[in-house]
Automatic annotation (TrEMBL):
Keywords on record: Membrane, Transmembrane, Transmembrane helix
Record flagged with keyword Transmembrane: yes
Protein name (Swiss-Prot/TrEMBL): Uncharacterized protein
Stretches that traverse the bilayer: 12-31, 66-90, 110-134, 146-166, 186-206, 272-296
Phylogenetic placement of the source organism: Eukaryota, Sar, Stramenopiles, Ochrophyta, Bacillariophyta
Keyword Cytoplasm set for record: no
UniProt biased composition (Polar residues): 222-239
Recorded superkingdom: Eukaryota
């Protein structure tokens, strides 16, 4: 796609901001996991790691990965809204030119092309800010409910925007144009991923919260074990009761009532989280790609 207008940079920057922010957040989290496993202080062998869903990644709103996603969404709201404004102006000119001949279908709604990108960016930003305002640790039910609502709105607005962009391309360039077909492909991908997310998202979110609780409790075990070790005069210097207890609990065949999971349960949850991450990234990349193709319309904007 040739960018013949200076305004064509807007949709490219908007799509790159949203897609790049999500991918960067997931990548940073993955590298952090790898680093943590390589530098384990408990003497145990490194565990395999997988990418994790954004709901887990933004759990610490002050982390770099959460900031990357937040900045990406904020930039998308601004740049995507501006792109929609240009598309709406081009659509208006297009309809005005066809009006005398009575051939304008006027199915695409210019205002929605502005509203949807802004809504997507705001909902994505609230995924991060919501955790800060209503933290999981203090308000677990309210925090999770807010997060689920914002995630659902983010995905729904993304899918609706994709199909609205298809309608726009159909009206501007025709149903068989390559830009229309390309947008349809990404719209169907995002819709399919949304269906998968609705079917399994709630279950995985529950498991994500369970793993978060598990990891929080496991971190306290070594220090508890060290206290016991210091109080026992007969304890050997080579023993680490906290770590031994952690290993016993994780490798046992049944879950511990304290919230500590078995190793198999942890790995199973991580696989579910990785699957949800792929679905979320697919939706984000699809809407980013559709946004970038907005250059097809902004190329036609003449500033009038």
């Amino acid at each position: 796609m040739e960018l013949s207008s200076p305004f064509s940079a807007l949709p490219v920057l908007a799509g790159a901001a949203l897609g790049g922010g999500g991918v960067a957040a997931v990548a940073i989290d993955l590298f952090e996991q790898i680093g943590e496993q390589r530098n384990r202080a408990d003497g145990r062998a490194p565990e395999p790691v997988l990418i994790r869903n954004l709901s887990y990644i933004v759990g610490n709103p002050r982390s770099l990965k959460a900031w990357m996603f937040l900045i990406g969404c904020a930039l998308y709201a601004a740049l995507g809204g501006a792109t929609g404004g240009l598309q709406a102006a081009v659509l208006s000119d297009h309809n005005a030119a066809l009006a005398p001949a009575g051939s304008s279908t006027n199915k695409a709604k210019g205002a929605l092309l502005v509203v949807y990108p802004i809504a997507i960016g705001v909902c994505g930003a609230l995924l991060v800010l919501g955790v800060r305002w209503v933290p999981y640790t203090t308000y677990p039910k309210a925090g999770m409910a807010l997060h689920v609502v914002m995630a659902g709105c983010f995905q729904m607005f993304s899918i609706i925007y994709c199909f609205e962009a298809v309608t726009l391309a159909t009206e501007m360039f025709g149903a068989d144009a390559s830009i229309t077909v390309t947008r349809k492909v990404f719209a169907y991908i995002s819709a399919a991923c949304l269906g998968v997310s609705f079917l399994f998202g709630g279950y995985i979110m529950g498991k994500t919260a369970q793993l978060y609780q598990h990891e929080s409790k496991v971190k306290t075990i070594p220090s508890q074990g060290q206290d016991v070790n210091n109080q026992s005069a007969n304890a050997s210097d080579d023993t680490t009761p906290g770590v031994d207890r952690q290993v016993d609990l994780e490798e046992s065949g049944t879950s511990n009532p304290s919230g500590i999971l078995t190793a198999k349960e942890v790995w199973s949850i991580r696989k579910w989280m990785a699957s949800l991450a792929v679905v979320q990234l697919s939706i984000g990349i699809a809407v980013s790609a559709v946004t970038i193709t907005g250059a097809a319309e902004t190329n036609l904007y003449n500033g009038g």
